[in-house]
Design brief:
Elements: E1 4-5, H1 16-23, E2 28-29, H2 62-74, H3 86-98, E3 102-106, H4 109-119, E4 127-130, H5 136-143, E5 148-151, E6 154-155, E7 160-161, H6 163-168, E8 174-178, H7 189-199, E9 202-206, E10 214-215, E11 218-219, E12 226-230, E13 243-247, H8 250-260, H9 281-312, E14 318-320, E15 327-329, E16 334-339, H10 349-358, H11 376-381, H12 384-389, H13 392-400, H14 405-413, E17 414-418, H15 419-422, H16 427-442, H17 447-452
Parallel strand pairs: 4-5, 4-8, 8-9, 9-12
Antiparallel strand pairs: 1-2, 3-13, 6-7, 10-11, 10-15, 12-13, 14-16, 16-17
C-alpha cells in the first residue's frame, strides 16, 4: 500500500475527501478510498495499518544461539573461572565499540550505577543530583549508598534534566551529578560538564538507554567520570538483565571491579565492602552473539527515526523529542513525542492513544509520575540514618524543594513507542505511523464521540 505525506509536499488526490483535506492544509494523503476513508477506525473506518507485524525483539539469530550453546558446553559459567570467558571478552569488545579504555560488567544497569556511586566514595551525608524522569533504578543506586538523591526539573522539550535547575540545587553536600540520557538521546553534556568543573563535582552518566549514541564525537557514557549501561530485555543491546560501567581511569575502574566483586580485588584480596554484582557468562554470551550486527541495527534506527521526524516536522499536534546541538546520533531506545491536546479539539491523551491504536499503531504513555511524586521520599526522611546524617533544616528544605512542574508536564503530554522493534522496520512502516497520527488529527472532530462513549 503506497502512502504519501504532506511532509514530502506531495498529495494523492484519491477522493473528494482527500482533495478537501488538501484544501484545508491536512498532512494526510490517504491510500484508502471509499466510504470509510474519512472515518476513524475506532468508529468503523478502515485502519491505516492492518494485518502487518513489526520486527520482533529481542534480536535472536544463529550467532546468539551458537554463542550460548558454546558457553554451555565449555563449562565456564562464571566470570572468575577464566580470564578469557565471555564476560571479560565482552568487556573488551564493548569498551572498544563505545570508545572507552575499560569496562566492568554487572548483573543490571542499577548495579552498575550503584557500583559507580560507591567507587567514587559517595555515601551517607552526600548528595547526588539526578532526574525525576527515569527508572527507579537511578535513584536506587544512590539510596543504596545511603546518599541523598536530589531531583532536578526537566527541559520540557527534550525530557532531559535541566542544567540550570541542576546548578540551582547544588549544596555543600553535593558530590556528583547523574544525568540520565532519557530515551537514548544525549543530555546537554556541554553544560553539565561545565557545571561539574565549576563546582568540582563528579559526573556519572546514566546511559542505560543510550548504547552507541554520540555527542560531539564521543559516545555517551564516555564523557563523564563513569558511564553506566543496561542490557535489560527491552534495551537496544540486550540479554535479559545485565549492565556495564565504562571509564578511562584505570585506578577508578579497578575500584569498580573490586566493589562489584564483593570487595575482592583482581589481586585476590578482600579490600573493602562490596556487593556481588558479577555478570554471568550466559548473559555475556547472548551479548557477544548480538555485537556483530548491533551497529547495523543502530544505524537503521537512526535512519528511520530521522525519516519519521522529518514527516512530523512543523506539525503542531505532536512534537518529537528535542535533540541538543552536538547530538550526532541517538540510541532511540524510545521514540518520544509531546501530545498537544489543544490541536485535537481538546481530546485527552488516552482518547488519542485509543484512536491511533485502532489505526494499527501502538503508541503509549511512558512514566506515569515523576519520582518526585513517589512515596520513597517520605520513607527515607523517616529513616534514622538520614536523620543522623542530614540536619533537620536540610531535610525540611529537601521536602519543600521536590516540586518539578516541568516533569509533571512531560508525564502528562508524553506519547511514545518502543523503538527496539518498530524502528527496525521500513520507511513504509514509518509512513504508517505518521499517517495514523495525521488521520486522527484530520478527523479530530470525531474524537468527542470516543470520549462520550
Amino acid at each position: 500500500m503506497e502512502t504519501d505525506l504532506l511532509g514530502r509536499r506531495k498529495f494523492l488526490a484519491a477522493s473528494a475527501g482527500a482533495i478537501a483535506a488538501v484544501a484545508t492544509g491536512s498532512r494526510l494523503a490517504r491510500a484508502q478510498t471509499g466510504k470509510n476513508s474519512s472515518e476513524l477506525a475506532i468508529l468503523g473506518g478502515q485502519p491505516i495499518r492492518k494485518n502487518k507485524s513489526w520486527p520482533s525483539w529481542p534480536h535472536v539469530d544463529e550467532d546468539v544461539v551458537n554463542s550460548v550453546l558454546n558457553t554451555t558446553k565449555s563449562g565456564i559459567w562464571c566470570r572468575i573461572q577464566s580470564s578469557h570467558g565471555t564476560v571479560p571478552t565482552f568487556e573488551k569488545k564493548f569498551a572498544e565499540m563505545e570508545g572507552a579504555t575499560f569496562c566492568v560488567c554487572t548483573g543490571a544497569g542499577t548495579q552498575s550505577l550503584h557500583t559507580s556511586v560507591e567507587a567514587l566514595g559517595i555515601g551517607a551525608g552526600d548528595e547526588v543530583i539526578t532526574s525525576p524522569y527515569t527508572d527507579p533504578g537511578t535513584i536506587a543506586s544512590i539510596l543504596a549508598a545511603k546518599a541523598l538523591p536530589v531531583l532536578a526539573d526537566l527541559d520540557p522539550e527534550s525530557f532531559q534534566m535541566d542544567p540550570e535547575d541542576t546548578r540551582r540545587r547544588i549544596t555543600q553536600s553535593t558530590k556528583a551529578i547523574m544525568p540520565v540520557h532519557i530515551m537514548g538521546q544525549p543530555c546537554n553534556m556541554d553544560r553539565f560538564m561545565e557545571i561539574a568543573k565549576e563546582h568540582r563535582l563528579k559526573v556519572i552518566e546514566d546511559a542505560c538507554q543510550a548504547h552507541l549514541a554520540e555527542f560531539r564525537g564521543k559516545k555517551l557514557g564516555t564523557i563523564g567520570d563513569l558511564g553506566c549501561f543496561s542490557f535489560q530485555t527491552s534495551k537496544t543491546i540486550a540479554c535479559g538483565e545485565g549492565g556495564a560501567i565504562l571509564g578511562n581511569d584505570e585506578q577508578l575502574m579497578d575500584r569498580c571491579y573490586t566493589i562489584h566483586n564483593h570487595g575482592t580485588s583482581r589481586r585476590g584480596r578482600t579490600e573493602m565492602p562490596g556487593p556481588k554484582y558479577r555478570m554471568n557468562e550466559f548473559e555475556a554470551a547472548v551479548l557477544l552473539g548480538q555485537l556483530p550486527t548491533a551497529q547495523e541495527r543502530f544505524e537503521l534506527r537512526n535512519k528511520n527515526a530521522n525519516y519519521l521526524s522529518a514527516q512530523l516536522k512543523g506539525f503542531e499536534g505532536i512534537t518529537p523529542q528535542k535533540l541538543y546541538e552536538g547530538t550526532e546520533s541517538g540510541a532511540w531506545y524510545l521514540y518520544g513525542m509531546s501530545y498537544h491536546k489543544e490541536h485535537f479539539n481538546g481530546a485527552s491523551r488516552s482518547t488519542f492513544l485509543k484512536a491511533v491504536a485502532a489505526e494499527g499503531i501502538g503508541l503509549s504513555s511512558y512514566i506515569r509520575n515523576g519520582l518526585h511524586r513517589e512515596p520513597w521520599i517520605d520513607y527515607i526522611l523517616g529513616q534514622r540514618i538520614y536523620q543522623e546524617m542530614f540536619s533537620q533544616e536540610r531535610l525540611e528544605s529537601y521536602r519543600a524543594e521536590t516540586a518539578c512542574p516541568n516533569c509533571d508536564r512531560v508525564c502528562q503530554e508524553m506519547v511514545m513507542f518502543w523503538s527496539s522493534g518498530m524502528l527496525l522496520g521500513t520507511e513504509q512502516d514509518m509512513d504508517d505511523i505518521a499517517n495514523a497520527i495525521f488521520k486522527v488529527h484530520e478527523n479530530r472532530d470525531q474524537l468527542q464521540q470516543i470520549e462520550k462513549s
